[in-house]
Design goal:
single chain; 372 residues; alpha/beta; Rossmann fold; nine-stranded mixed beta sheet; two-stranded antiparallel ribbon; 11 helices; binds S-adenosylmethionine
């Protein structure tokens, strides 16, 4: 189970974002102290070395880095927890193992090619979700994020995806941009982003919102009006100086659950489920064309209920993506916490459920795919 709290609006994209005040320490001195722990011949010696190390951590202590010197930065609670674990180890071998792990973390960054998560300090990223059940208590309403577009997703979704599957300067493609949640979040995190949205007034709105949000990392944010079933994403990326995209986030209509417009090209106006899936397939084929191999596509979608039957729209859409050159990496179930429309009808749906023998939707899916 994962409870995702909204990140602070000014949270940096790194380990300091959720794990307490940072401690700036002299790297060389810390590595030496940890090496001494690892070389201890017995537990009492190791604990004495550990006590000396802890004493040197206090303000003004020998391990504290004055300005100018190359420092290693640890969130204080994290470092204290690691030291406590070493202290509590029952065998010399275990204590040395924990000390060695901390030494690795102090040595420097080890990141994967597709994100900036420092794997040598993976414990510091306690706000990055790795479970397949997402329970999001409260929508992040910070900055220019707004909840008034019926059908927009919570900012925590693109926030998690961008931090997990991109690096600063990467390009993200959102072919169903809506009210721009992905674009706002990408700008905050320093990822470049191309959004395509069928409704021109929404595009204007997204431009205004993005312009009102600070762009600390100088991200390029481009949103255009268009039909994503036939948009040349490559040409649009090329106009921005990019050859390809490194992440795609797709949040299409859940067929006709919400009619977004009267436009016949709108996927929410598809005459049947088959037609909806065919149109979604066209968008995915265009996305696969510009996405780098080995990079991720995220699909956010829910099921629907029609003529007394549960329609597994999510799984049908999942297959549509899989058939176009993607390996399925994860199925995440995310809670739905009463959108404005649903809240008003909650009681009615509960009554209908009791009468009709079904359950009211409280979840949607986040499918993660990797391009083969
Ligand atoms: C579920 S909403 C996306 C919401 C978005 N993630 C947000 O947070 O604001 C789906 C969007 O897809 C748009 N749409 C529908 N058909 C489209 C098409 N053929 N091309 C581009 N956009 C389309 C709708 O206008 C709607 O805004």
């Amino acid at each position: 189970m994962a409870i995702v709290e909204p990140p602070a609006p000014s949270a940096p994209d790194g380990p300091e974002s959720g794990a307490g005040a940072p401690l700036y320490l002299r790297r060389a001195a810390l590595l030496e102290a940890l090496a001494a722990l690892c070389a201890s011949p017995d537990l009492p010696t190791l604990r004495a070395e550990l006590a000396a190390l802890r004493a040197a951590l206090v303000p003004g202590g020998a391990l504290r880095a004055p300005g100018g010197e190359e420092a290693v930065v640890f969130p204080e609670p994290l470092l204290q927890a690691e030291l406590a674990q070493i202290d509590a180890a029952l065998s010399l071998e275990r204590a040395r193992y924990y000390a060695g792990r901390l030494r690795k973390a102090a040595q420097g960054e080890r990141t994967a090619a597709i994100n900036e998560i420092d794997l040598n300090r993976w414990k510091a990223y306690d706000d990055i979700v790795t479970d397949s059940l997402w329970l999001i208590e409260r929508r992040d309403g910070s900055g220019v994020h707004r909840a008034d577009y019926w059908g927009n997703f919570v900012p925590q979704i693109p926030n998690q995806l961008l931090r997990r599957y991109t690096r600063r300067g990467d390009w993200v493609l959102d072919p169903f941009a809506g009210a721009g949640t992905t674009l706002i979040e990408a700008q905050r995190l320093g990822r470049n982003v191309l959004g395509v949205e069928l409704q021109p007034p929404l595009v204007e709105r997204v431009r205004d919102l993005v312009a009102a949000e600070p762009n600390r990392h100088g991200a390029l944010v481009h949103v255009v009006a268009g039909d994503s079933t036939c948009t040349d994403f490559r040409a649009l990326l090329a106009e921005q100086g990019a050859a390809s995209a490194q992440l795609a986030i797709l949040h299409p209509p859940y067929h006709d659950i919400i009619r977004f417009s009267d436009d016949p090209r709108d996927l929410s106006n598809a005459a049947s489920i088959d037609r909806f899936l065919a149109l979604l397939g066209q968008v995915v084929s265009r996305v696969v064309d510009v996405l780098d191999r080995g990079r991720y596509l995220a699909l956010v979608i829910g099921d629907k209920y029609a003529r007394g039957e549960w329609v597994p729209l999510g799984f049908l859409a999942m297959q549509t993506v899989q058939e176009r050159g993607f390996a399925l990496k994860s199925i995440v179930v995310k809670d739905i916490n009463g959108t404005a429309g649903k809240r008003a009808q909650k009681e009615l749906w509960r009554y209908r459920a009791l009468v009709g023998g079904f359950y009211v939707f409280r979840h949607e899916y986040l499918f993660l795919f990797r391009k083969r």
